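> call design_seq(struct)
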């Protein structure tokens, strides 16, 4: 039977961590563990976890080192072959583990399974995507750009061996997961399932906070130099466009050569408008 290690990095989430843990522990799939890595919380988050008596749940506490550090610690502690990330303010939906296990059984060649998710924003809950998509993802970067593939925490499982091969950069405090995904996209066999496996609780207050120090963000470490496919370069260029918005005072000094990438700029804008056109017909 396929076993899963659900890893939850935790930092000051005392208002949400109990509901998150209950959403996992109430799964009726028999073979899984929950690893909570408390990254130096200063509120009552860790105490809430300690008060739960369940042999499937393990708590590890460490000094604050950021999300990458917590994720790497969780990977080293995982006992099972398949790892699922879950943020401490999101919810795993019923039958999520059975959906992952069923897809893996039907596609034994896969290294990563990505499911659909619900997006909870304000008083509205909606599925991320509604159209039927092919199970096998043949071009991950193209699918990522067109929003047909969105492996965020809680929506996918991945082999532990691959995550050990591509650890999180611990000096990154933002978008560290995107950095890892861009490495994984080069070598994993990705399979999709239409099952809705997670509810992402969108935090508008966190998104509205001013971002500083681009060096702590993957958006400050985009590599356009080495040979890459066109779709990967377009995805990188979109991150560069986002960086211009997030770090307007820093981005030009980090990427002084971007004005010379005329072909890439044109390719990105063509792909961007085509994506917008497709959305109008969904």
């Amino acid at each position: 039977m396929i076993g899963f290690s659900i890893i939850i990095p935790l930092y000051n989430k005392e208002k949400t961590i109990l509901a998150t843990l209950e959403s996992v522990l109430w799964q009726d799939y028999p073979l899984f563990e929950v690893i909570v890595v408390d990254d130096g919380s200063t509120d009552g988050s860790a105490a809430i976890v300690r008060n739960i008596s369940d042999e499937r749940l393990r708590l590890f506490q460490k000094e604050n080192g950021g999300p990458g550090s917590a994720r790497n610690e969780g990977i080293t502690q995982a006992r099972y072959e398949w790892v699922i990330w879950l943020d401490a303010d999101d919810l795993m939906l019923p039958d999520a583990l059975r959906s992952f296990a069923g897809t893996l059984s039907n596609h034994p060649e896969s290294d990563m399974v990505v499911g659909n998710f619900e997006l909870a924003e304000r008083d509205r809950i909606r599925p991320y995507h509604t159209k039927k998509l092919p199970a096998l993802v043949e071009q991950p970067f193209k699918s990522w750009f067109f929003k047909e593939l969105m492996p965020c925490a809680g929506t996918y499982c991945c082999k532990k061996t691959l995550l050990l091969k591509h650890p999180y950069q611990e000096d990154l405090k933002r978008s560290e997961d995107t950095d890892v995904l861009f490495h994984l996209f080069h070598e994993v066999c990705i399979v999709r399932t239409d099952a809705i496996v997670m509810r992402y609780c969108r935090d508008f207050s966190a998104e509205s906070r001013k971002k500083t120090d681009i060096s702590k963000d993957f958006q400050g470490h985009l590599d356009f130099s080495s040979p890459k496919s066109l779709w990967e370069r377009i995805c990188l260029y979109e991150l560069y466009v986002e960086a211009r918005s997030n770090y307007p005072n820093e981005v030009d000094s980090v990427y002084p050569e971007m004005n010379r990438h005329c072909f890439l700029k044109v390719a990105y804008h063509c792909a961007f408008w085509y994506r917008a056109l497709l959305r109008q017909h969904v």
